Each structure stands twice: as C-alpha cells, then as structure tokens.
Amino acid sequence: xxxxxxxxxxxxxxxxxxxGFFFTLVVLHVLAVVAFLPYCFSWWGVASLxxxxxxxxxxxxxxxxxxxxxxxAVEMPKWLERAFVLCGVCSLEGSPLWWxxxxxxxxxxxxxxxxxxxxxxxxxxxxxQWIYTADPDRNRLSTYEKYVPDLLTDPFLRWLHRGQKWVLxxxxxxxxxxxxxxxxxxxxxxxxxxxxxxxxxVFVWGVVVRTVYVxxxxxxxxxxxxxxxxxxxxxxxxSRNNWWVALLTNGEGWHNNHHAAPRTCSQGHRWWEVDLTYxxxxxxxxxxxxRNVVPVKVASYRQITAGETGQGSDEGRAELAPGxxxxxx
Length: 329
Ligand SMILES: [Zn+2]
Ligand SMILES: [Zn+2]
Known about the structure:
Bound molecules: zinc ion
Largest sheet: 2 strands, antiparallel
Strand order of the largest sheet: 1-2
Order of helices and strands: HEHHHHHEHHHHHHHHHH
Number of domains: 1
C-alpha cells in the first residue's frame, strides 16, 4: 500500500475544468443524440458501431493503449504497434503517454487516495468527470518520468503527445471518414440530396456516435467494473468481473482478473470469460505478428479452481509492466 493511502487527505480536491475537452465532450454528445433523428438515423449505422468499436476500441484502446503499451503483455512489429496505437488515438481518449500514465497510477493506487478515477465516492467522477478535470500533479514531467519511462524513449509517442498532435490525428481521421462517406454517397445515390444524406450518416455514425460509444464503454471499465460484478480474486481494490462490460468492450470487463494479474494478456481466466481482444491477439500470434504474449500464470488459474484467494492481488500489485512496479511510491 502506498504511504499516501495511509495519510489523511490533506487537501480538498478542487477540480479544474479542462475547458476545450469539456466543450468537445458536450458537442459530440449532442451530435450523438442528433444521430437518432430520422434524417441521420440508419440501421447500418448502428451495425457499424460493432466494427468501429472493434477497430478503434478493442484494437486501439484495449490492445494497443492498454495491454501492449501499459502492461507490455504482448509485443508486435513496430509498424503494426504504431498502426494500432493510431487506432487508439482515433478514439479521442488522450495521447498514449497520458493514457498509460493515468492507467499505471490507477493500478498503483486503485480505489485509494490518488487513484485518478476511482468511483468509490462518486460513480460519475470515476466514469467521466475525472477526464475533463485537470490534475497539475499528473501533468509534471517528473510524473511522466516516473510512470512511463519506457515510453518516453519512443519518438513516435513523444511526437503524438507534444503539441497535442494526437488531436490533429483524430480530426484528420474524422475528415477522411466523412470524405469517404460523401464519396460513397455520390457513387451510389440517385440524387444529390440522397448522396449528401449518406455522407452525413457515415460521418455521424462512423465518427461521432462511435467515438461517444467507445468513450462510455471504456469508462464503464473504470466505473461499473469497480462497483458491480463478481470477484475471482481478493484484490485490495474494488475491481469486479462484470459480464455486460466485458461483452460491450470485447473482454475488458473481466476487470478483477486484470487487477489480480495486470501483465497477463488474456483477461478471461475462466472458460466462460470470453475475451475477443485476446482472441485477436492469438490470431496475430498464429500468423507471427504477435510475440511474447504474457500467459495466465498457472498458479493464478489453480487459485481460481481451488477457490483460494489472496496471492493474485500481490502478484498484480508487484508488476504493471517490465521495470514499472505498483509498489513504487
Ligand atoms: Zn481498475
Ligand atoms: Zn491495466
């Protein structure tokens, strides 16, 4: 346990709004509601959420940002790693450096003082309020040097972070999808009005609704999966295995398993705990595009089947990524 957790909280948290990101959140949520008006609504748009979530949420956030960069649970060729990281950037959840920094702090101080997004006191704080709230302590270079020293050496990740270029990448991808939508519209529609309508629908569902959808299902891991569900391991935090969060996120909802063994690539530890993100990693492994996949430790598995608990939590808190320990303070 960190020493900070043993001390009474000395300062009252006074959240400082990140105005630009808050404004973006509001605008995209309003536009996401507009998507359900008859002019914008389409069933193929709804279906496209599944594909969009897999590319930008499961590959971009779950696999690239989380399992690969944060926990080094799998390695890939640099070109593929960067392509997948760009998918994560296109989910508008922050630069990879910022995301990994916050997530490693979350593992180190889970549901204790200093956890960036514990829902223990307020569900809304853990779900999304924290993300548009500035914390000067977490923005210091020294904090980055402490929590993401391995990633600071990567010029591509530094480039994305510096000058908020990750936002530029997001805007560019949105324009590209929009342009493709209008292009398809003019190719297949009989009238210009119908072509424009198809373009608007592709943009609204392929970018706006998909971004908001991936936001919320990612945030449910931080909020719902720290409140509701069952536990395989007696970890020191409030993490839970939540089946509907796992279903929506293609595997990230088995969050108690993940807190018990953060470096393990697969987050489903029992046979019914389906983890499609891990299935994708296994497929990449078969065609030799993924290597050094960190397995579920046999000791952890026996612990589940024997109904024993306790050791998994210590293992989990000991190592978040190679050279980054949860017990550092
Ligand atoms: Zn957690
Ligand atoms: Zn994690």
